[in-house]
Amino acid sequence: MTSSATVTLNPSGQKMPLVGFGAWKVGKDTCADTIYNAIKSGYRLIDGAQDYANEKECGQGVARAIKEGIIKREDIFITSKLWNTFHAKEHVEPMLKRSLADWGLEYFDLFLIHFPIAQKYVDPAVRYPPTYVNDIEKSIAYFQNTPISETWGALEKCVEAGLVKNIGISNFNAGLIRDLLTYAKIRPAVLQIEHHPYLTQPDLIKYVQAEGIAITAYSTFGPQSFIELNHPKAKSITLVLEHPTVLKIAEETKKTPAQVILRWVTQRNIAVIPKSNNQGRLVQNLDSTDFNLTEEQISAISALDIGLRFNNPADWPTPSPIF
């Protein structure tokens, strides 16, 4: 089974699947098999990043699926992200090529700026991926004054060189996006944001979609994604998938709570990238676009919004507020 629901990206016109598989927190020891199984189960969008420290393993899973004839390269949409330490123009293309080599690919379908935060360059020979915490100082690596315009210009050259088909942004607020659109020669195709019933960000979504920029939601199940990270905010609130409102709608639609939440997102033309190591849930997550919620049901889920953000750089060891 493969979901046929897609969103068309501007300006390339390429179609991106609305339901993909997110590689965040997928361990190296199981990653290759997990990605392979996701593709075999019908997933045609894999969302990765340099910071996830598993790009080689993701690539191995994709290569196996291609070798076995399950897919061709053009059948699958691969996303990666530029880490904070590689924002300087001289580092963007080399590090994009580094990621391509790790994946074993000639091009990415989408490459995002992971955060609008420029940190001091870390030589990959010293530590890769650098992660946001410096292993030596046990704190956020020093920042550097690299404007987003410089990073974006370097990414545009990567598009022109055929290394990536679409470029975009992640964790950007509306003000930064407005500024980016004033100088971008190639407009961002996608904005990836934390989006779940406890953090709906309706004004940002309305503005971005009006600008013709597609949106991908991550951490769609809210606190569920952060419990294993021992996030204090995730322990003190009802899990989205156990909320009475969600359970009621699941009963009404004869769908799982997870399918209800995913449809709440995709029915508004926003892509989702859930992950699961459970084969049953893997298939259920993919099979979440063949029904519709009523406007009342969508509104009821949206009304759960309390502005609760889990992935917030302001909470990093060296606070880096961007929202």
TrEMBL record:
What gene is this protein a product of?
GRE3
What residues bind substrate, as annotated?
H114
Domain of life (superkingdom): Eukaryota
Domain NADP-dependent oxidoreductase residue range list = 19-305
Hey, which family's this protein in?
Belongs to the aldo/keto reductase family.
GO terms under biological process = D-xylose catabolic process
Q: Which organism is it from?
A: Sugiyamaella lignohabitans
**Which residues catalyse the reaction?**
Y52
InterPro entries the UniProt entry points to: AKR, AKR2D, Aldo/ket_reductase_CS, NAD(P)_OxRdtase_dom_sf, NADP_OxRdtase_dom
Q: Where is this site: Lowers pKa of active site Tyr?
A: K81
Spell out the molecular function terms from Gene Ontology: D-xylose reductase (NADPH) activity
PROSITE patterns in the record, alphabetically?
A: ALDOKETO_REDUCTASE_1, ALDOKETO_REDUCTASE_2
> Which protein, by its recorded name, is this?
Trifunctional aldehyde reductase/xylose reductase/glucose 1-dehydrogenase (NADP(+))
Would you indicate the residue range of the signal peptide?
Answer: none
